[in-house]
């Protein structure tokens, strides 16, 4: 694991953060056009590598390179605990969050194996010493300073020398936070957004939906304010993911989002700006039932659909070899002219 770099951006107020979320740099369209031009010369029918072609162009457009690279792939996992766990919304005790952070450090988690396969570095950032947020059925999950501090921490974790960032999380109870945040951002009730999380049964999911409905009724301030919604219903690790995805945008680093929780954490950027998540791709569709709807609201199409419901950036890590394959084709294939292959009539 690597030690995160120190803070370079400090969001001192919600207005500061809001400004950073709406004043966003665009991709490098010259690089995108150069990649499309080379793609058209390669020995295959135009478009026959499907979404792989678009992925190469996306990588290069955000890296600002006509020849994209995947030398420095970094996975960052943020961990946090949730006060709403006391409402009985998870089948696991909150202590598992810290225990899994220990497991990440010891190399024993799924993500340690997947990061190695992806040839990616892995950084784990425990948030707020793993103290829980407030129970958001009673009070906002975070105070404004605590929320901004968590966003700033996530922002500072992103190393500018990164070719691709994979973002993920660990936090018992956070599928409830993600579901409540999704409802706050896109509408609907607890029933629409509550799912099995880390293994609830049907009765548990029904109870989780009631808890979410109570929380939505408790708060008003989130309406039409996506950042306020993230403060009220999110968590420290979710705020940090928001900060990391935002930092990547300002540094023009392409991002692979992970599952349901990661998507909900990043979703305020989509609500605040039509192209707020253009530098990201959704790595997979989680088995969490509402991820399908959330992806649709966010206007993103998952790359993989493997029935994963783990979190900890596992889906993002699994999509890295797919990007490496796309890039290998783009950089390694011969052109029609070089290979002496006839072009179509
Ligand atoms: O992000 C997802 O798609 C996802 C789906 C199901 C479970 N999780 C993980 O499970 C934990 C949260 O589950 P729960 O039931 O305690 O809310 C948390 O550590 C997440 O990383 C994550
Ligand atoms: C064991 C365990 C591992 C996890 N990894 C991410 N979320 C998790 C939740 C649990 C319960």
From TrEMBL:
Organism placement in taxonomy: Bacteria, Pseudomonadati, Pseudomonadota, Alphaproteobacteria, Acetobacterales
Molecular function GO labels: nicotinate-nucleotide-dimethylbenzimidazole phosphoribosyltransferase activity
Pathway noted in the entry: Nucleoside biosynthesis; alpha-ribazole biosynthesis; alpha-ribazole from 5,6-dimethylbenzimidazole: step 1/2
NCBIfam families (UniProt xref): cobT_DBIPRT, PRK00105.1
Entry annotation: catalytic residues: 312
The organism's place on the tree of life at top rank: Bacteria
Residues making up the signal peptide according to the UniProt record: none
Gene3D superfamilies: 1.10.1610.10, 3.40.50.10210
Protein family membership: Belongs to the CobT family.
Protein name as catalogued: Nicotinate-nucleotide--dimethylbenzimidazole phosphoribosyltransferase
PANTHER family: NICOTINATE-NUCLEOTIDE--DIMETHYLBENZIMIDAZOLE PHOSPHORIBOSYLTRANSFERASE (PTHR43463:SF1)
Gene for this chain: cobT
Reactions the enzyme catalyzes: 5,6-dimethylbenzimidazole + nicotinate beta-D-ribonucleotide = alpha-ribazole 5'-phosphate + nicotinate + H(+)
InterPro entries noted in UniProt: Nict_dMeBzImd_PRibTrfase (IPR003200), Nict_dMeBzImd_PRibTrfase_bact (IPR017846), Nict_dMeBzImd_PRibTrfase_N (IPR023195), Nict_dMeBzImd_PRibTrfase_sf (IPR036087)
Enzyme class label: transferase
Key words of the record: Cobalamin biosynthesis, Glycosyltransferase, Transferase
Organism the protein comes from: Gluconacetobacter takamatsuzukensis
Job of this protein: Catalyzes the synthesis of alpha-ribazole-5'-phosphate from nicotinate mononucleotide (NAMN) and 5,6-dimethylbenzimidazole (DMB).
EC number, UniProt record: 2.4.2.21
CDD domains: DMB-PRT_CobT
GO terms, biological process: cobalamin biosynthetic process
């Amino acid at each position: 694991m690597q030690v995160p770099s120190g803070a370079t951006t400090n969001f001192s107020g919600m207005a500061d953060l809001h400004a950073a979320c709406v004043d966003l740099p665009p991709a490098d369209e010259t690089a995108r056009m150069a990649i499309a031009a080379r793609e058209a010369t390669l020995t295959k029918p135009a478009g026959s590598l499907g979404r792989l072609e678009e992925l190469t162009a996306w990588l290069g457009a955000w890296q600002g390179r006509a020849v994209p690279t995947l030398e420095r792939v970094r996975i960052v996992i943020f961990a946090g605990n949730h006060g709403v766990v006391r409402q009985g919304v998870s089948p696991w005790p909150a202590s598992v969050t810290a225990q899994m952070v220990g497991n990440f450090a010891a190399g024993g988690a799924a993500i340690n194996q997947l990061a190695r396969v992806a040839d990616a570095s892995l950084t784990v950032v425990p948030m707020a010493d793993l103290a829980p947020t407030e129970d958001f059925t009673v009070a906002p999950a975070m105070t404004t300073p605590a929320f901004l501090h968590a966003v700033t921490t996530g922002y500072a974790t992103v190393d500018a020398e990164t070719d691709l960032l994979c973002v993920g999380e660990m936090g018992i109870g956070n599928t409830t936070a993600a579901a409540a945040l999704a409802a706050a951002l896109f509408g609907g009730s607890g029933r629409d957004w509550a799912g099995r999380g880390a293994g609830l049964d049907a009765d548990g999911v029904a109870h989780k939906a009631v808890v979410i409905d109570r929380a939505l009724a408790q708060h008003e301030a989130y309406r039409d304010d996506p950042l306020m919604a993230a403060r009220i219903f999110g968590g420290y690790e979710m705020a940090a993911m928001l900060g990391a995805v935002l930092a990547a945008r300002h540094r023009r680093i392409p991002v692979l989002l992970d599952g349901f929780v990661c998507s909900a954490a990043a979703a305020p950027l989509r609500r605040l700006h039509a192209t707020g998540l253009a530098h990201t791709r959704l790595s997979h569709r989680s088995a969490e039932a509402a991820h399908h709807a959330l992806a649709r609201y966010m206007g993103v199409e998952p790359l993989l659909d493997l029935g994963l419901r783990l979190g900890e950036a596992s889906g993002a890590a699994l999509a890295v070899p797919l990007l490496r394959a796309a890039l290998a084709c783009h950089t390694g294939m011969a052109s029609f002219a070089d290979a002496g292959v006839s072009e179509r009539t």
